[in-house]
């Protein structure tokens, strides 16, 4: 059975443009995959713990030596990775905040990047373990950024590749703060791109 995981990172809740585009993609995806499974995770509504000394210490402590507190800290990461592994298609919303993506998404990435679980070190460098998955990044921006002039795209592509997800597509909704005409045109263009990808 085909499965879709949608990871939303906007703090704007019902006003989120990237979230609205993700919902539109879900609708089209379900039309094309009747009976498919969809899971949505809202990182703003249900925040992931930030990486700190306690969490890092828990990650690096062997499983059979962890304290009860450390086990509880690792449990959320384990659940997120299990969820990610269970889905074929991944959608990530990445609104641009101060030239990068939200801290909520960074916390999620920090929680799922686990040596020996989602990637491994080899004598030829790190190798991602989450292969045979497809990712779609929906990036919304207030301004307009020429190809190669933003920080989001290369960082997101690098991280996803690091954990083994090489098949990555990007859909952009730009100029959303440049007036109603610009926003409407960009949203329509993004929806068309999502329809084609779904």
UniProtKB/TrEMBL annotation:
It comes from the Bacteria. It holds the Pfam family Flavodoxin_2. FMN binds at residues 10, 16-18, 96-99, 140-143. It is an enzyme of class 1 (oxidoreductase). Gene3D superfamilies: 3.40.50.360. Its cofactor is FMN. Binds 1 FMN per subunit. Belongs to the azoreductase type 1 family. Homodimer. This is FMN dependent NADH:quinone oxidoreductase. The gene is azoR.
């Amino acid at each position: 059975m085909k499965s879709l995981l949608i990871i939303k990172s906007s703090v704007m809740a019902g006003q989120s443009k990237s979230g609205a585009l993700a919902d539109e993609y879900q609708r089209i995806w379900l039309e094309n995959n009747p009976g498919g499974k969809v899971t949505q995770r809202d990182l703003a509504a249900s925040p992931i713990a930030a990486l700190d000394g306690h969490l890092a210490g828990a990650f690096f402590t062997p499983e059979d030596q962890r304290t009860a507190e450390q086990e509880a800290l690792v449990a959320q990461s384990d659940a997120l990775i299990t969820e990610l592994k269970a889905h074929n298609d991944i959608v990530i919303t990445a609104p641009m905040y101060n030239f990068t993506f939200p801290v909520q998404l960074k916390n999620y990435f920090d929680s799922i990047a686990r040596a020996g679980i989602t990637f491994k070190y080899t004598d030829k460098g790190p190798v991602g373990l989450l292969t045979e998955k497809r990712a779609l990044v929906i990036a919304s921006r207030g301004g307009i950024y020429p190809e190669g002039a933003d920080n989001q795209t290369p960082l997101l592509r690098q991280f996803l590749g690091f954990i083994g997800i090489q098949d990555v597509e990007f859909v952009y909704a730009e100029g959303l703060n440049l007036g109603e005409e610009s926003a409407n045109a960009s949203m329509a263009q993004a929806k068309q791109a999502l329809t084609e990808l779904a």
